[in-house]
Amino acid sequence: MHRFFINPKCINGGHAYIEGPIARQVFKVLRLGEGQQIMLFDNTGWAYSLVIDTVSSRSIAGTVVDKTFGIGNPIIPIKLYQGLL
User: Fold this and answer.
1) Mean pLDDT of residues grouped by 10 in the chain (85 residues)?
2) What Rg do the C-alpha atoms of the chain give, in angstroms?
3) Whole-prediction pTM value?
């Protein structure tokens, strides 16, 4: 499932409306259509599963089918180190 970070204002109750580059990527690049699902993150900890109702290169409108909290934070801390040559 494709995942996108959006502004929390895009979610209104059980519906979502997205404009701009995300809509273009979904329509032109990923070629997703009506009835397909995407995952939306609103940077406040909530994740929304969205079924696309209408899609164009300028906007996406959809229905929220599931809302969960806190699936984005890993339980195990990860440290990355760069090796210098």
Assistant:
1) 91 92 93 93 90 94 91 76 88
2) 15
3) 0.75
